[in-house]
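Hi R.,

Here's the chain you asked about this morning:
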Amino acid sequence: IAHLKLYIKYEMIRLLLLLINKVIAARAFSTIVKLRNHCELNFKFSITEQKNKNKIYLVESSPTANDPIELSYELAKRNV
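And here is the predicted structure, written out as tokens:
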């Protein structure tokens, strides 16, 4: 029974971390959308997740753009 209680605590902490990660990603994304609307820029958005990082790439939609502008930020590790 003690093991079960410990497991439930672990799962609750893990789910809380996942929720925090999603909120951070959503806020960053909405900030970029506001920035795009304010500056009237043409950006394509893509969000990619790699291991313990979320990266948001802002890619100019003009064909001459070579390198995407990369905004990356560390999030809480998913593996507690």
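One quick note: DSSP finds one helix and three strands in the chain.

Cheers,
M.
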